Amino acid sequence: MTAQRPPVPPFTEETARAKVQAAKDAWNTKDPEKVSLAYTEDSEWRNRDVFLRGREEIVAFLTAKWRKELDYRLRKELWAYTGNRIAVRFEYEFHDADGQWFRAYGNENWEFDENGLMRKRFASINDLPITADQRRIAVDPTGTR
């Protein structure tokens, strides 16, 4: 039996916003195992030009991502929702091992199963080099921003 991951579809504005907040909070932990639990066992991803299937590939991808994207901080906001789908816009900031900061912008389209697990995630992302003084996403020690 698959565990439920509330809120479950069909989404209302309130439950869609809660789902987006939960995703943002999980991703900001930078814990690939924890993040992967929000996805179905056979979840499909497109992240830029990378195509993934399943939690094992998601964990490997996120592990590598957060080894390279240091001091990663993410914002997500609800763009649209209907039935079992949610669209978000996001931005995140990180620096590489050489100290170069980046801001990544993008959109994601999500599709959920009846248990509230994400079965499809399609992300379009663009990176912009920035200087440290151009950062907009402050590191919050509580992990809530």
Keywords:
single chain; 145 residues; alpha+beta; 6-stranded mixed beta sheet; 6 strands
What does this structure look like?
This protein has helices spanning 13-27, 32-36, 55-68; strands spanning 39-47, 50-53, 70-82, 85-95, 101-112, 118-130. With 145 residues, it is an alpha+beta fold. A hairpin with a 2-residue loop joins strand 3 (70-82) and strand 4. The radius of gyration is 15 Å and the shape is globular. Residues 141-145 have low confidence and may be disordered.
Which band does the percent of strand residues land in?
Answer: 35-45%
Helix-strand category: alpha+beta
Shape: globular
The end-to-end distance, rounded to whole angstroms, is 34 Å
Low-confidence stretches: 141-145
How many E strands?
Answer: 6
Question: What's the rounded overall pLDDT mean?
Answer: 94
In short:
The protein is 23% helix and 43% strand. The protein has helices at 13-27, 32-36, 55-68, and strands spanning 39-47, 50-53, 70-82, 85-95, 101-112, 118-130.
Topology record:
Layout: H1 13-27, H2 32-36, E1 39-47, E2 50-53, H3 55-68, E3 70-82, E4 85-95, E5 101-112, E6 118-130
Parallel strand pairs: 1-6
Antiparallel strand pairs: 1-2, 3-4, 4-5, 5-6
